[in-house]
Amino acid sequence: MGRRRSDTLHASEDAATDRLPCRRRCLRHRHHRRRRRRRRRRRRRRRRRWLSVSAAPPTSPDAVQVARTPSASQRRPRTSPAPRERLPASATASMARKVAEVTAPEGGGGGDGLGPRWQLWRRRRFVLASLAFWGLVSMYSTRINFSVAIVAMTSGSGACHRAALPANASAAANASANASAHAGECSERGEFDWDSRTQGLLLSGFFYGYLASQMPAGWLVARAGAAALLGAGIAGSALLTLLGPVAARVGGAPLLLATRIISGLLQGVVFPCLNAIWARWAPPLERSRLATTVASGCNVGTVIVLPLSGLLAAHVGWPSIFYVFGAGGVLWWALWWAQTADSPERDRRVSEKERRFIEEALGVDTATAKVSFHPWRSFFTSPAYLGKLVAHFCANWGFYTLVTQMPMYLKDTLGFDLRAAGFVSALPYVVMALLLQVAGHTADWLERRQLLNTTHVRKLFLCGAFVLQAGCLLLSTALLDPTAVVACLTLGVALEAFAYAVICVNTLDMAPLHASVLAGVSSTIANTSGILSPQLTGFIVRNKSAAEWRIVFYVTSGLYLLGATAFGIFGSAERQPWAEDGLIPAGDPPAPAPAPADADAKKPSRRDAGHDNAAADVAV
Questions:
Q1: Is 80 exceeded by the pLDDT of residue 264?
Q2: Buried b vs exposed e over 266-279: b needs ≥16 C-beta within 10 Å?
Q3: Under a CB-based contact definition with an 8 Å cutoff, are residues 236 and 196 in contact?
Q4: Which residue, 206, 262, 236, is CA-closest to 330?
Q5: 117, 272, 417, 585: most buried by Cβ count inside 10 Å?
Q6: pLDDT score recorded for residue 262
Q7: What is the value of pTM for the model shown?
Q8: Rounded distance between C-alpha atoms, residue 316 and residue 297, angstroms
């Protein structure tokens, strides 16, 4: 039966009625999309205007007003609406730079005018950080590889008895159990027959030289240059590593010990030099990120060298351990020497935008000035610096106690075999290297977003890390499951990353121009814990019982809480009053000669003029 015409008309009207709301909805959505696009365009224009002002050289407010006043041909017609937000005419370049820093996206490079933030190779400060990272990887590879090499060099009478090492063999000596786990089973007949005392002396000789050179490093930086001195320290240590097999075969243990001590002397200047470099290269809102990126090279180098040294010793021979890592250090030095400079003003490859950005962020005086003397009395009477010293010592004590004594604790108390103990002992290095990146980026992000000021960020990270580390140690003494104990100890060591994110940069916060000397003194005092901690552990742990190890963990937890209290009360990231003592601004013109008191005074004769000129020369 056919459909009637009236039904068809009604159906078409209903369909049109149904389509009408959909049409209106589409128009409404299109309208909102256009509004969103207009807002995004306005935001992009506003941001480009801010960045262009921040990249421009500082000018007077009058010049800014003239530059922003459009000509008659450039003025907008009166019908066009004015922009909603504009910088006031009295805004200076420094104010615009601060706005750009606050509104900059996460990651490096916001506000420096060098393109997208992921193009790190365009920014010389990040190139410098990557080279310094690999420098620390090379430095730690030449430091730790000897712990593995000595296992393969010596006969079974000394190398296989790790417990016979003296208690004061410091960090590398206590890591020998970890090294032997990667090197495989000890050889019954090594090339050298050295007893445990000789081995302990060879292992600890590096650290005696390392402690001796850190305090003079600040004085050497001012005369040799931070970049050149850092490269010479790592390259010299690498050359001595290359000579290690020859020294051992020609001169025996005494000559090898001399190379180890000299290697420690050379590497002791590295961290003070890094502080001097960041004092002139790192903007305040990027200090934590750059410093922690470089510091993670220590952990990465340790993780790489332990298994690789074991493989080289097993398949090629123990001399290859010295040759491979020594050659790597020399190759790194060639890149460092060709690519780096002490400051942006001396770097030929730095762009003008980046140089201006760094100088404005640091202040021209800090970026280019020199230091004539260091206020030593002010250093040791400053509560902020003393609080940092206590925190640094406590951090190193806990690190050396946990990392260097962990193989012995796992083997003797928890029943791990030597190979498993070596693997577990490497876990904290891996986790700490990852957390260092998290800590540095998070600290800079909190400062950039102005959620916390710099002092609050430093105290939150260091005190929070110390309290959590103490809690992990105390919890490990109450647990019975070995896996849970290992997890607590690994987390306790890894949380040290947040503390080191503060320790690496706190001297730069307080006094950038004295940072190398402050870091050298702090490192010297803090690294004495590498000798004292094994001695105290050896004195307490005599029967290798769980009760004795609990005492060791209680002492370490107490020192963590002491460091948190000292830094929480006295610590500061503010510029100290003595930070400018000894400052010599670069390029200061000599003071002009004073004008004569009487303008109508008689002009001096030629003989008097010569006398006065000589006196003026003496005065200048």
A1: yes
A2: bbbbbbbbbbbbbb
A3: no
A4: 236
A5: 272
A6: 94
A7: 0.69
A8: 26
Asked if pLDDT for residue 224 goes beyond 60, the answer is yes
Contact between 431 and 299 (Cβ < 8 Å): no
Q: Write the DSSP assignment of 184-209 as a string of letters.
A: -SPPSS-SB---HHHHHHHHHHHHHH
Contact 104, 111 (CB under 8 A): yes
Average pLDDT for residues 506-529, to the nearest whole number? 88
Ordered domains of the chain (ranges, CATH):
124-580 (1.20.1250.20)
- Give the integer Cα–Cα distance in Å for 176 and 302: 13
| Secondary structure E strands in 67-210 | none
CA trace torsion 114, 116, 118, 123 (10° rounding)? 0
Instruction: Render 210-258 in DSSP notation, one character per residue.
Output: HHHTHHHHHHHHHHH-HHHHHHHHHHHHHHHHHTHHHHHHHHHHHHHHH
CA–CA separation, 442 vs 448, rounded Å?
Answer: 10
Angle, helix 383-412 to helix 418-448, in steps of 10 degrees: 150
**Distance between CA 443 and CA 291 in Å, rounded?**
11
8 Å CB contact between 326 and 242: yes
Amino acid at 80: S
Q: H/E/C letters for each residue in 514-576?
A: HHHHHHHHHHHHHHCHHHHHHHHHHHHCCCCCHHHHHHHHHHHHHHHHHHHHHHHHHCCCCCC
Half-sphere exposure of 481 (CA within 13 A, CB side): 4
Q: Which residue, 471, 495, 473, 484, is CA-closest to 414?
A: 484
Tokens 């609050």 sit at which residue?
456
Instruction: Decide: residue 565, CB within 10 A, 0-12 exposed, 13-18 middle, 19+ buried.
Output: middle
Give the residue carrying structure tokens 């803090």.
526
Judged by DSSP in three states, 154 sits in strand
Backbone angles phi, psi at 154, to 5 degrees: -100, 165
Name residues whose C-beta falls within 8 Å of residue 92's C-beta, 6 or more positions apart in sequence.
Answer: 58, 59, 61, 64
